[in-house]
Write a structure and sequence with these properties.
71 residues; 3 strands
Length: 71
């Protein structure tokens, strides 16, 4: 099941260019697919990485949990 989230750089204290660069790098690694209107869709591999990150990093857990609904 793909996971989708709007990329909202201002809410994360980032510039649009920074967020775009992050999505580009994730796309190059086949971890997400960009979609219209600032939405990024995690691939299966991207979701697996995100879940592993959540388990290892409490701060990332908060970000991913609140932003993308991972728990």
């Amino acid at each position: 099941m793909p996971s989708e989230a709007a990329v909202k750089p201002k809410l994360m204290g980032l510039k649009q260019a920074t967020a775009s660069d992050m999505v580009r790098r994730l796309t190059e690694q086949a971890l997400c697919e960009p979609a219209p209107y600032g939405v990024a869709i995690l691939t299966t591999q991207g979701r697996e990485h995100a879940v592993a990150m959540v388990r290892r990093h409490p701060l990332v857990e908060t970000l991913l949990g609140e932003t993308m609904g991972y728990r």
